Amino acid sequence: MDTSTVSSLSLTNTGTPQPVKKSVAPAPISDEYGDDQTRWLAVVARDRAADGTFFYSVRSTGVYCRPSCGARLAKHANVAFHLSCKAAEVAGFRPCKRCRPNELALATKHADGVAKACRLMESEDPRPRLAALAEAAGLSPFHFHRVFKTLTGITPKAYGDRLRGQRVARELTPENTVTDALYCAGFNSSGRFYATYPGLLGMTPRAFKARGIGEIIRYACGKCSLGLLLVAATGRGVCTIQFGDDETSLLAELRAQFSDAKLIGDDPSFTRVVEQVIALVEDPRRELDLPLDVRGTSFQQRVWSALHGIRAGETATYAEIAARIGQPSAVRAVALAVGANSLAVAVPCHRVIRTDGKASGYRWGLPRKEVLLQRERGK
Description:
The chain is of the alpha/beta class. It is 42% helix and 12% strand.
């Protein structure tokens, strides 16, 4: 799992736990549950992700519940939806004694505890022991370990190792040697770094530090039906495919990505490569017969590899991708990895959609994503 998942969790849970018996303020309404039919499907599925976005009441019992309530499913005709506990109570309904919708959810308490533990690991060196982390979260060590893995997709130890890996990445600057960076991050040898987390950077530390130094990257821009397209390749394969509206911005992004590489444009021999990529854009159902030089963290590469398993004309949700890589709780991290893809169409991130079947969140604009999906469906 990408550690940004937990980092963002810790940033959004900076307060202390609130008293249990406190009315829960309505969460921002998600477009994903924006109509009654979608809300009813969430109730049928007991979708925990919908908790806090709305509540439902049952006319025959006079109570209102969270979408995930485990009580016997009511008849659809007896169900109404409310955007807050207060709205349900004003309508004459009382809170369910089973799911206690007007109290702080257990999942929220657990998230607060995990966020505290994450902040503790981020701020202290050496890393605190499991018992100290569990105490900060208000749980027993055994229960904390299980809750942490459920919420983040990885163990506390793995998260701590990833924090150290991030520190290695930060320290790998042109001014520092690889050895200096590893020691600053707390590793007493490069061998220990590789043994602790092999492949964390997606490449060797020296290559990560180089940012393309010593490499020759050929690039060219071409026009396609979706606008301007920049294609770049190293000696190993295509490393960047980006949509854009002007060549200046596209080239600036390429230079930022490979700041120390030698960039060569207007190479006549590279025209054929660009033509093949444009042909893929015009018909994304075809295969790109070109080698790819895919660069990213080990987690990102696992996500991108899973994207290749989505066949043309089909789609998958972020949750389904998380399940395919064996980390079903890492949905947000998967979404971040999908958004970080720099090989448009070749790595088919446009085939990932929301759980309600709608397209959203595309790095190069939603209209382009919708066109690509329509083309793959033969429309």
